Amino acid sequence: MRDFASIAEHVTKSLQGKNTGPWSLSVKVHRDVNQIMRQAVVKDSRFLYQVALAQQPGQVYCMVDGSVVVEAEKEMEIILSRLKNLWQLRQSVVVEGTSYEIGDFTLRVANILLGSAYKGLLLEIDYHPCSAPNVASDLLREFVENIVPPTAQLSCEYEYDYESVGLSNHEFTTAHTGYQYMMLFRNDGLL
Asked: Residue 112 pLDDT > 70, yes or no?
């Protein structure tokens, strides 16, 4: 797959993308302390996923094991840190990258580093004219194919069952983006 520098060059030179500055996100995974204390098998543990997006600095998005996605104020992080008798922080990662505007799209690109270990390249794409989830899947797939070489090994989902986690299937919000990150990090075993 193209690395960060070659994608940045391709986006700015070939696609006339405009660098709009840095962006970041953080993902934290907490494990249910009750499961740990009972010495349950790790696969039986419950996990709480927490995502904070730079584009929504006052908000965090949380989900326990695929249940409802909850949008909360940033103070939720403080509350979770004080609930050490219920939830223990298992891992966290901060992903920092660059944002680009390319016509009707916003592309965010970053390397995923877990400590010093490289886990891959992250691409986030927003298509501005569409606000309904799962409607522009083919267009997003085509856009990704224009960014990465055909030999790239991709791990991506273009459609989700948002209603199963309490999100709208009619109006896309930042909570949807948070959920997508939770699923990416969960399904790909990045944390």
From this structure: yes
